[in-house]
C-alpha cells in the first residue's frame, strides 16, 4: 500500500476534524460528553492553513490520516496526529510523524513538543520522543496529559524508531 502525504485543502477541514474525533474515540472514550468537550480542540479552522502546517495521508482509498504542526523559532508543537481507526497500525502514523519531523526541521526547529493522549503516548515514545512532564488538557479541566519531546537536531528517522 502506498501512502502519499500532501498539504490539506480548505474544503477538507470539516472532514479532517471529524476524522480526529473518530480517531480520539478509539482510546475508549465512550462518553459522548467527553468527545464533545474535545470537539473544539480537535477541529481545524480555515486560519490554521496559514498559521500551521497541516498535511494529510492518502491511499487509494482516500484520506487516512492528518497531522498538524506549529513552529515558532527553534521549537515545534505537534498539535494533531490522527489516523482513521480502520487504518491504524499499518504505518500511516509513522509516515505522518516523519513528515512532521522533517517539516519542523526544515523550518528551523530543534525540538518538537507533544501533548499526547495517554493512549497514544507509547506511539510517540516508539518514535523517539521522551517524557518531560505533564500538561493540562485544553479540553477537560483537571485532566493532565503526558508531555513529550523529540530532539530534532540529534536523530534521524531510523534512530527515532530505535533501529541501529
Walk me through the structure:
This protein is of the alpha+beta class and 164 residues long. The chain has one domain: Aminopeptidase (3-Layer(aba) Sandwich). The chain has six helices and seven strands; from the N terminus they run E-H-H-H-E-E-E-H-E-H-E-E-H. It has helices at residues 13-25, 32-38, 48-51, 92-106, 121-126, 157-160, and strands spanning 4-7, 53-59, 62-72, 75-83, 111-115, 130-136, 144-151. The protein has a seven-stranded mixed β-sheet. It is globular. The protein starts with a strand and ends with a helix. Residues 160-164 have low confidence and may be disordered.
The secondary-structure element order is EHHHEEEHEHEEH
Mean pLDDT level: 91
Low-pLDDT ranges: 160-164
Secondary structure tally: strands: 7
